[in-house]
Design goal:
single chain; alpha+beta; 2 domains; four-stranded mixed sheet; 6 helices
Length: 176
């Protein structure tokens, strides 16, 4: 599943949790197998179990960082189905600085980028600064509910595919 598509967050959470459980289970099995066979911690079995623990911990960390986010309900996604797919991105966990902001929907129009986010910490200035770093000068408006987003988007003209794709890739590039 690609970043920016509906269901991405839940898919990534499931994958990371699955790999974390498999890795941590393999680590425990290897460690205790080595302990039974060799009789001490100072064996290559211990080394292998530690080496397996590192990627497992990374998957666990990714899962933990996304645990507070969930995928969009299908009804919200279907209400914007008429838009150009190149000008819309769903479920972005934007990493800006040391903070992660959850954007449920990003709609790229000719005059501005309109974001639907229930994250109370995200501001237009934060996203505009991110885009400016990539050379994109665009206004950003944040809606806290889907009805506001629909109302704004209906009144704006959609952007051409090339420009919208560049902005969408910038947002996706900063997403988990």
């Amino acid at each position: 599943m690609d970043k920016g598509s509906v269901g991405y967050i839940d898919s990534v959470k499931r994958k990371n949790l699955k790999y974390a459980i498999i890795g941590l289970s393999a680590m425990v099995v290897l460690y205790f197998t080595g302990l039974v066979i060799v009789g001490s911690n100072g064996s290559s079995w211990t080394l292998f179990s530690v080496l397996i623990a590192l990627p497992a911990a990374q998957f666990l960390t990714r899962y933990i960082s996304l645990r507070g986010f969930s995928s969009l309900p299908q009804t919200e996604m279907l209400e914007l189905d008429y838009l150009n797919p190149e000008a819309i991105a769903y479920e972005l966990a934007l990493v800006i600085g040391k903070k992660t902001y959850y954007v449920r929907i990003a709609v790229i129009t000719e005059n501005q980028i309109t974001l639907y986010s229930t994250d109370s910490d995200i501001t237009s200035k934060i996203v505009m600064d991110l885009l400016r770093q990539k050379g994109i000068l665009s206004q950003v408006q944040i809606c806290k509910d889907i009805d506001s987003l629909k109302k704004i988007v209906k009144s704006l003209q959609m952007m051409g595919t090339t420009e919208a794709k560049a902005i969408k890739e910038t947002l996706i590039g900063n997403a988990l």
